[in-house]
């Protein structure tokens, strides 16, 4: 699930209150906006949560989405994160078939991708892998021939890269007044 030119990542800081996620996702549903990926968790300040949303910008403009999001009272700040200016990560858990004849090959691939085996059975392994979405896509593709019995990905989380020079390409949008 790599960020393509047709996808945009938004980091939305919201009040950490009951129902906020439902209002945000409801806005997308009512307007017919497609969400590619959605992740939410409390931020460093317990009063706020950060929602990371990856959207399809071929269907809807980012400007239209941010205007609609700002109409929600609980939205504090929206940051457009361009993939070259952001650190993006995702978590994958997968259970793969790993009989004795192929187990060593699978363990070697898990090591190449810096994954971790978190559960073992006689004919299966459950693996955890974190990284950029492209890395997880590659791992998933290589595991398919072995047989993936279960797979879960968290969706993308992202933060702006640290500003090492003036004039960063990051665009912040905040509520006026």
Largest sheet: 5 strands, antiparallel
Q: Tell me the count of domains.
A: 2
Strand order of the largest sheet: 2-3-1-4-10
Query: In one word, what is the shape?
Result: elongated
Contiguous helical run count: 4
> What is the CATH topology assignment of the largest domain?
Alpha-Beta Plaits
The name of the CATH superfamily of the largest domain reads ACT domain
Indicate the radius of gyration in whole angstroms. Answer: 19 Å
- Count the E strands: 10
CATH class of the largest domain: Alpha Beta
Class of secondary structure makeup: alpha+beta
- Roughly what fraction of the amino acids lie in strands? 35-45%
Helix content: 10-25%
Mean pLDDT across the residues is 89
Description:
The structure is a single chain. The protein is an alpha+beta fold and 177 residues long. It has two domains: 7-86, Alpha-Beta Plaits (2-Layer Sandwich); 87-157, ACT-like. Chain A, domain 2 (Alpha-Beta Plaits, 2-Layer Sandwich). The protein has helices at 20-31, 62-70, 103-112, 133-143; strands at residues 7-15, 35-42, 48-56, 75-81, 86-97, 116-121, 124-131, 148-153, 157-160, 171-174. The model has no long low-confidence stretch (mean pLDDT 89).
Question: What is the secondary structure topology, with strand pairs?
Answer:
Elements: E1 7-15, H1 20-31, E2 35-42, E3 48-56, H2 62-70, E4 75-81, E5 86-97, H3 103-112, E6 116-121, E7 124-131, H4 133-143, E8 148-153, E9 157-160, E10 171-174
Antiparallel strand pairs: 1-3, 1-4, 2-3, 4-10, 5-7, 5-8, 5-9, 6-7
């Amino acid at each position: 699930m790599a960020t393509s030119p047709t996808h945009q990542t938004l980091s939305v800081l919201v009040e950490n209150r009951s129902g906020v996620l439902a209002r945000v996702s409801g806005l997308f549903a009512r307007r017919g906006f497609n969400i590619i990926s959605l992740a939410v968790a409390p931020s460093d300040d317990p009063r706020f949560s950060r929602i990371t949303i990856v959207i399809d910008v071929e269907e809807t403009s980012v400007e239209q989405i941010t205007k609609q999001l700002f109409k929600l009272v609980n939205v504090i700040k929206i940051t457009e994160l361009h993939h070259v200016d952001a650190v993006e990560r995702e978590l994958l858990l997968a259970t793969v078939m790993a009989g004795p004849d192929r187990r060593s090959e699978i363990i070697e691939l898990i090591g190449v991708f810096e994954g971790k085996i978190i559960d073992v059975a006689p004919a299966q392994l459950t693996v955890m892998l974190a990284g950029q979405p492209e890395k997880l896509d590659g791992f998933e593709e290589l595991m398919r021939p072995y047989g993936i019995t279960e797979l879960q990905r968290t969706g993308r989380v992202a933060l702006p890269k640290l500003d090492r020079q003036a004039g960063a390409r990051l665009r912040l949008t905040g509520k006026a007044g």
